[in-house]
Amino acid sequence: MKTSVKRALTVSACVLAALCAFAYLVYALFFGAGTLKVAARYRLLAVDKEYVIDEKDAHIGEDGLLYVTGGEYESELSGRGFMYETLRYLPDAKATVLTAHFESEGRYVKLADVSSPSGFTARKGAEDRDGDSLTTQFDLSYKDKKNASQEPVLLTVYAYMGDEAAVLQDGFEPATFTYPQDGSNKAAAKAKISFDGWIKQDGEVTQVLLSSPYESAFICAEFTCPENYDAALLQLHVFETVSRITPGKQLHKLVYQFKLNFLDDSRWEYLLKGLATTLLITLASGCMGVVLGALVAVIRSTWEKNHENMRPGIGKSCLHFADKVCGVYLTVIRGTPVMVQLLIMYLIIFAQASNGTVSAILAFGINSGAYVAEIVRGGIMSIDNGQFEAGASLGFGYPQTMIHIIMPQAFKNILPSLANEFIALLKETSVSGYVAVKDLNKGGDIIRGVTYSPFMPLIAVALIYLAVVMFFTKLVSLLERRLRSSEHRT
Amino acid sequence: MSTERNPKAPLISVRGLEKHFAGGSIKALNGVDADIMRGEVVVVIGPSGSGKSTFLRCLNLLDRPTRGSVIFEGTDITGAGVNINLHRQRMGMVFQHFNLFPHMTLLKNMTIAPVKLKGVPKEEAEREALELLERVGLKDRAYAYPNQLSGGQKQRVAIMRALCMHPDVMLFDEPTSALDPEMVGEVLDVMKNLARSGMTMVVVTHEMGFAREVGDRVMFMDGGRLIEQGTPEEIFTNAQNPRTQSFLSKIL
Ligand SMILES: Nc1ncnc2c1ncn2[C@@H]1O[C@H](COP(=O)(O)OP(=O)(O)O)[C@@H](O)[C@H]1O
Ligand SMILES: [Mg+2]
Are the C-beta atoms of residues A393 and B62 closer than 8 Å to each other? Predict the structure, then answer.
């Protein structure tokens, strides 16, 4: 047994490796290596809407500007009109802030000068970094007076850090600084922004956002970079989407992707913990399904086989009622999508507790119970009536006959179907993410949401599911062989 | 218990037994009265579909009678509130198709009921089962599975399985009908030995030789009724009822 498990593991590992190699080939063929990719996420706080631009090809022009092209990107521009609209209707545009998170392969980007399409520029001055604290000087200017207000302009700085802007947004007070008018044609001011205690030294992405009520929002982005990466410059015109970037050292595309998706910030832990959660939900709900299914199957087959031969009385009425209840259960559960059942469990039945994992275990357990019940019932009905009669004639009561004589034979017959049901269940649990369960699929999802690169996390998740399923399939076939050899059935 | 006080009372007493199937449209038993005395070997004969099996199955309530009573050792076991399982422990049954448990060894087939139902220690039950197997020449197959046996061997084990419960009566429903001819003898031998040991037996069979040799009484059934009964001598040589005569003339 032990050696067979070992062999099953080895086979799974080999297949996994082969699939990885194949996936790499496909990836290298279709995506090439070393092209520059840009992904962006715009968040319009006024309407709390997010615009996501998937990873796009980009290239650096001879002018040193970074050009991003792509159909989806163009369509994102339709959001631009919307943004102007928002500005017009919300002159107190403090709320209108766009954030962008630009990343280029093999590089991180450093704080840069920015200018808006209408000529507002923020030029970065001295930068003073002391441990976790960063102070940056900005020279702010208008190109043209008509854009400048006569009144002092209040600029607001929003600070975001890392991946989870929403979380950090709560944690930091907006820093404000005033911007006095000197009456001259060119409005200019110096601003000094200090951040204390939240800029991490290594690898954290930080975004600094400036907004003015008279400007369409503009952005300067600051990324601190890990020591082993070259810094790059990025200049971003929000709506013109042209960035300048100086090339730095490039990592091989695949290595970079792997590092980004799995190694950075220990992101592989999402997959590992996700797998553990997936297995927990599957095993727990699988056990529940088998118990529930066996119970329902016994009730239904008992009624089916015996109701004609039973004396009328309270026992018969109870059994009839139980049979009817089981019938309704089967109809309802098999007649509705498991996804809907899961949401009902989470949002209605467990509305108070809001426990995703427990909801998922119960929902999937109840769901698979219905399918197991039909399998077990088939197994029981396939046992020759003579077995029931032999048991009864020896003096076994119906439940004892079931336990000692019928069920062991029925379970042996239906083991392959039960295994299939279990494997289907394992895959079905991948929708648990909808009820805030961080299962394997959701783990991949989280990584994707951070890195904006779908390939690696999705393929990794798929391969892990595949490996687990193959492992269980192998295990079941071993078990089956053992059971068969212990019986000598002809 | 009452039978111990009154050994003359029948072991099983059947009164007005009726069994209907399919909602009353099939009357498999149509009012049967019969007594089976302790130590008696009763052979039930009759044409196919005459209700022999149903009669036998009503004795231990595998088929619940539609009407009438079955009094076993002084208790009407058709009554409400009777725990039929306790009574079945004392009524062994042997089926046409053996109905051994295919997932258990022969030894387990024979010991599971005494161990689980009577609380007999496993070692003791196994010792007894092995003795019984030895008596029918199957001791060396104790750890084989039923599907590794011939039909005759299976039926012998099935008889031994019932005997392990020390029943007061053994019911046989055509125990040799599913066997190849050359295996009939070995099963009948076991049954004959059992009859000689004083076991009360009700045997549905077409083996008239068996009926003649060990039967104390022969019952002839037809159309769900007990048409005629008597000693083998009376029935086989001097049947009164024309239906009995016509049946016997066909099979003898
Ligand atoms: N479970 C059943 N359902 C319906 N009819 C049955 C059932 N068992 C027996 N019968 C009918 O009852 C009659 C007697 O059957 P049975 O006792 O098996 O006869 P025998 O054993 O003498 O051949 C037959 O007509 C048979 O078709
Ligand atoms: Mg019959």
Answer: yes
**Any residues with CB less than 8 A from the CB of A424 and at least 6 apart, and which?**
none
B54 Cβ inside 6 Å of ligand 1: yes
Least distant ligand from the CA of B222 = 1
Instruction: Work out the minimum CA distance from A317 to partner chain B, whole angstroms.
Output: 16
A393 touches chain B (CB under 8 A): yes
In Å, how far is B93's CA from the nearest CA of chain A? Answer: 6
Our CA angle for A281, A287, A290, nearest 5°, is: 130
B25: CA distance to ligand 1 center in Å?
Answer: 12
Decide: A489 and B147 in contact? Cβ < 8 Å.
Answer: yes
**Assembly ipTM:** 0.93
Q: Which atom of ligand 1 is nearest to the CA of B57?
A: 17
Q: Tell the residue number behind the tokens 């004795």, with chain if given.
A: B59
* Chain segment A364-410, per-residue pLDDT in tens: 999 999 999 999 999 999 999 999 999 999 999 999 999 999 999 99
For tokens 């959660």, name the residue.
A277
- With residue A9 as reference, give the H or E element that holds it: helix A2-31
Q: Give the model confidence (pLDDT) of B169-178 as tens digits.
A: 999 999 999 9
For the Cβ of B49 lying below 6 angstroms from any atom of ligand 1, the answer is yes
* Chain segment B184-200, per-residue pLDDT in tens: 999 999 999 999 999 99
Q: Which residue's alpha carbon is at the smallest distance from atom 26 of ligand 1?
A: B49
pLDDT digits (tens, 9 = 90+) for A258-314: 877 888 778 899 999 999 999 999 999 999 999 999 999 999 999 988 887 777 888
| CB A446 within 8 Å of CB A270 | yes
Task: Return the number of CB contacts < 8 Å for A and B.
Answer: 75
CB-based burial, B128-162: b 16+ in 10 Å, e otherwise: bbbebbeebebeebbebbbeebebbbbbbbbbbbb
- 3-state DSSP assignment of residue A20: helix
